[in-house]
Amino acid sequence: MKKSLKYHRILLKLSGEVLGNRQTGDCIDPSRLAFMAERVKKLHRLGVQIGIVLGGGNIFRGLVGAKKGVNRITGDSMGMLATIINGLAMSSALEQIGVPTRVMSAIEMPRLAETFIQRRAIRHLEKGRVCIFAGGTGNPYFSTDSAAALRASEIDADVLLKATKVDGIYTADPKLDPKATRFDRLRYEVALEKRLKVMDSAAFALCMDNEIPIVVFDFFDGNALERVVRGDAVGTLVSDK
Q1: Cβ of 177: how many Cβ atoms within 10 Å?
Q2: Considering the domain 2-239, what is its CATH architecture?
Q3: Longest CA span, the chain
């Protein structure tokens, strides 16, 4: 089965908002969490080595807090703690369906998670454990997109998969602009030049420097993840070609 895979080690970036449910007011919706865990389990069964970075926007977002009077550094620290909450929730959901995990945090809190160490993370992946990288980069002013690009570089991932609510990168927000068109492929330089908001510039630049392709796709497409790792054309591919 592994021979049929194009990508054997991936970094999956998930938005924290997909965990929440505005209709019910739940920051973490158990049904959405279970759905995401099942999707990851399917990849795990294929033999894919999986690292995950979760955002924290369903609980707290540093930039939003700053606009409401919260000190930016304090707000970003709160946001990093939110990603640890989400990471622990994802770990629990995966463990309950038989997928071994390790939560590794950029912020030291040994009672809850391992401190991130690059060589240890790779060893966990080689042993078939899903690594959930929490706590962002451990520094303020960096988004979880940047954390995902950093961890993807550190674990030598074959690809960074950015899961969103739309099926790729568009010229504009397709929910607001009916004339928006989707890119099938993009070069890093074009993504940076156009300042496409699907990821921040630091994340794009880090992936470009380390030659890590980015695939942006619709996470709620039931077969998208499996198709991506097998090399099918799904969503938008950002690379140097």
Answers
A1: 11
A2: 3-Layer(aba) Sandwich (3.40)
A3: 53
Other CB atoms within 10 A of residue 187 CB: 13
Query: DSSP letters along the chain, please?
Result: -GGG-S-SEEEEEE-GGGG-BTTTTBSS-HHHHHHHHHHHHHHHHHT-EEEEEE--TTT--HHHHHHTT--HHHHHHHHHHHHHHHHHHHHHHHHHTT--EEEEESS--TTTSEEP-HHHHHHHHHTTPEEEEESTTSSTT--HHHHHHHHHHHTT-SEEEEEESSSSEESS-TTT-TT--EESEEEHHHHHHTT-TTS-HHHHHHHHHTT--EEEEETTSTTHHHHHHTT---SEEEE--
pTM for the structure as a whole? 0.92
**16-42 pLDDT per residue, tens:** 888 888 788 789 999 999 999 999 999
Number of Cα atoms under 13 Å in the Cβ half of residue 165: 9
Pairing of the two strands 159-164 and 130-134: unpaired
CB-CB contact of 212 with 161 (8 Å): no
Model pLDDT for residues 36-85, shown as the tens digit of each residue? 999 999 999 999 999 999 999 889 876 676 677 889 899 999 999 999 99
Q: What residue ranges do the domains of the chain occupy?
A: 2-239
Tokens representing 60? 């707290």
Give yes or no for a contact between 49 and 10, defined as CB atoms under 8 angstroms apart.
yes
Question: Do 155 and 121 meet the contact criterion of CB atoms below 8 Å apart?
Answer: yes
